[in-house]
Write a structure and sequence with these properties.
disordered N terminus; four-stranded mixed β-sheet; alpha/beta; about 30% helix
């Protein structure tokens, strides 16, 4: 999907959301469709302290908020750079987690792919693809300690 098509899809979804809210009595501000951006990504994890430590060490993320609910604990991590937050959720019922194959990696745009790759590996990541250059991009892929893929990307 091209960036243009992706933005058109997001705009169409935002328009549908405004219509649905209007039909139900709730009103979105007129600027909502223009400002609609992904705000967070959520990973369900089996070891919350270890996964929080990994993302803090590997990518410099910091805890923004911790939500202790009766059935779950959620930690919202944010980056010093502007972007989407990462929410890590741990369900207290002991459910067994399995990774599916219908999702893509979390992606980070970076200036220094090689440095980020080295920090991730030092923090406990597994290499899926060492840093390489292809066209106008430098890219690497690692997996966090629980197997979630992370794409590290620099575009010229």
């Amino acid at each position: 999907m091209t960036k243009h098509h992706g933005m058109a899809l997001i705009a169409a979804m935002a328009g549908a959301l405004v219509l649905a809210q209007s039909a139900g009595g709730a009103r979105a501000a007129p600027s909502d469709p223009a400002s609609l951006r992904p705000s967070f990504l959520k990973f369900t994890v089996s070891n919350l302290p270890a996964m929080q430590a990994f993302y803090e060490k590997a990518f410099g993320m910091q805890q923004q908020k911790r939500l202790d609910n009766p059935g779950s604990t959620e930690v919202i991590l944010t980056s010093p750079a502007v972007g989407a937050d990462l929410a890590l959720v741990y369900y207290k019922d002991g459910r067994k987690l399995t990774l599916g194959n219908a999702n893509g990696p979390i992606g980070f745009y970076l200036q220094d792919v090689d440095g980020a790759y080295a920090r991730a590996m030092a923090a406990g990541a597994t290499s899926r693809s060492a840093p390489r250059t292809g066209g106008d991009a430098r890219v690497a892929v690692v997996s966090d300690p629980e197997g979630h893929d992370i794409e590290l990307l620099h575009l010229d």
